[in-house]
Structure formats: C-alpha cells, structure tokens
C-alpha cells in the first residue's frame, strides 16, 4: 500500500496589538515575526513531495500557506472545514471586561469543559477537520499534503489520533506557532503522528491568540 503524509501547520504569529481573542474575525494578518515564521515553515517543507496545499479561509492561515505553496509551485486552496473553532468570547480580551470568568453572566459558558459550552464542540471540530484530512490524503495519495489551520483543531486531531480524551488543559497543548503536526498514513490507515517546530528560534517573546506570551 502507498504511504501518504498530511502535514497540519499552525499559522504564524498574528498582529494583534489589542490582545483580543480574534477567533474567526476577518482581517487579522500575520505580524512581521509571523511572516518570518511562515518563511521558516516554507523552507522546512520545501524538500517534501507536496502535491496539495490547503488553508483555512482566514487571512493569517492563507498568509502562512503562501510560502509553502510557492516552494512547490502550487496554489493555496481555501477550505472552510479548516477554519478556527467558534467561540462566544471572540473579539474580547480573555479574563478582561466582557470575557471575565468572575462575571456571573459568563458562568454558563464555562459550565461544561467537555463539550465545551463556550464554543464549537470538540467532536464537531474533529469531524470537519478529519473530513478535510482524508480528502487531502486521497488527493495526494503516495505523496504529501499540507493543511494550514489553527491550534485548537490541530491539537484535537492529534489527541483523537492518539486515542486520548478530547478535553484537556489549554496551557499543555504541544502546538506552537508554525509548528508541523504530521499524520502518516499507510493506505487509508493512520500509522504514526510526528511533530516539528521549524520556527522554534522565533518563539521567544511571541504571543498566542489570547495575547499571552508563548516563551
């Protein structure tokens, strides 16, 4: 049977001076450092036998995918199934103002960490992204495909692939900016998951989606 690899790439650092949870809001672009990260991951994947590059329709993912696709003379295909997870606190600073956990009006959103109740259910995210992954595996059979998306959906796919519960502590995700989580298939069957951080040298001082320091 043929071997196929589908790489899940998290986008680079985003220009977010207000430090809000930007979620699916349009217009959030890569920062200057995020563009450097995208170049690093593009260089990392340049030797790979990439047959397909797809990305979330959000600008930060499209910008991260651009140097990857350019290295292989491929277009970037937008895939709605790869979009960021939904979140009721989108547009707010986490822990501040309207998104404060201490505000009793928000307690209903934190009532069920297994679903979760503040956003798109974990299982729904896994279902839509896995559909895109298997479609990409079919398209790139015997070669490699790259999907550029967002931290939470990538981490949920990895936990699902490794047979772990989907609920988890957000601070313990192994999915840094412009990291590459690779799913290795033999025929239609997943055989291995590997992880790389080609932009690790640029992570010191970088910020994540909520404005928190990564390193």
Ordered list of secondary-structure elements with their pairings:
Elements: E1 3-10, H1 32-45, E2 50-55, H2 59-70, E3 77-78, H3 122-139, E4 144-149, H4 151-161, E5 180-186, E6 189-196
Helix pairs in contact: 1-2, 3-4
Can you characterise this structure?
The protein is α/β, with parallel strands linked by helices and 215 residues long. The protein has one domain (3-202): Phosphoglycerate mutase-like (Rossmann fold). It is built from 4 helices and 6 strands. α1 runs parallel beside α2 (59-70) and α3 crosses α4 (151-161). It is globular.
Keywords:
phosphatase activity; single chain; Fructose-2,6-bisphosphatase; six-stranded mixed sheet; Rossmann fold; alpha/beta; His_PPase_superfam; His_Pase_superF_clade-1; PGM_Phosphatase
Low-confidence stretches: 210-215
Strand pairing plus helix content: what structural class?
Answer: alpha/beta
Biggest sheet, open or closed, and with what strands and sense? 6 strands, mixed
Any idea of the CATH class?
Alpha Beta
User: What is the CA–CA distance across the termini?
Assistant: 42 Å
The level of helicity is 25-40%
Question: How many alpha or pi helices?
Answer: 4
Total strand segments: 6
Beta strand %: 15-25%
Largest beta sheet: what is the strand line-up?
3-2-4-1-5-6
- Average residue-wise pLDDT: 88
Pfam families: His_Phos_1 (PF00300)
GO molecular function: phosphatase activity
Protein name: Fructose-2,6-bisphosphatase
């Amino acid at each position: 049977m043929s071997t196929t690899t589908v790489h899940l790439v998290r986008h680079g650092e985003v220009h977010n001076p207000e430090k809000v949870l930007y979620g699916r809001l349009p217009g959030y672009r890569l920062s200057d450092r995020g563009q450097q990260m995208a170049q690093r991951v593009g260089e990392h994947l340049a030797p790979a036998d990439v047959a397909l590059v797809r990305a979330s329709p959000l600008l930060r993912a499209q910008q991260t995918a651009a140097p990857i696709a350019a290295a292989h003379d491929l277009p970037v295909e937008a895939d709605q199934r790869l979009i960021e997870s939904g979140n009721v606190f989108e547009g707010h600073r986490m822990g501040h103002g309207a998104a404060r956990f201490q505000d009793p009006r928000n307690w209903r959103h934190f009532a069920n960490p297994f679903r979760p109740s503040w956003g798109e259910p974990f299982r729904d995210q896994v279902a839509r992204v896995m559909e895109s992954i298997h479609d990409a595996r079919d398209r790139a059979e015997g070669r490699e495909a790259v999907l550029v998306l967002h931290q939470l959906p990538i981490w949920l796919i990895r936990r699902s692939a490794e047979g772990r519960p989907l609920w988890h502590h957000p601070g313990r995700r192994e999915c840094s900016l412009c990291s590459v989580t690779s799913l290795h298939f033999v025929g239609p069957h997943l055989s291995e998951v590997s992880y790389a951080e080609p932009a690790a040298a640029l992570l010191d001082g970088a910020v994540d989606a909520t404005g928190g320091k990564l390193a």
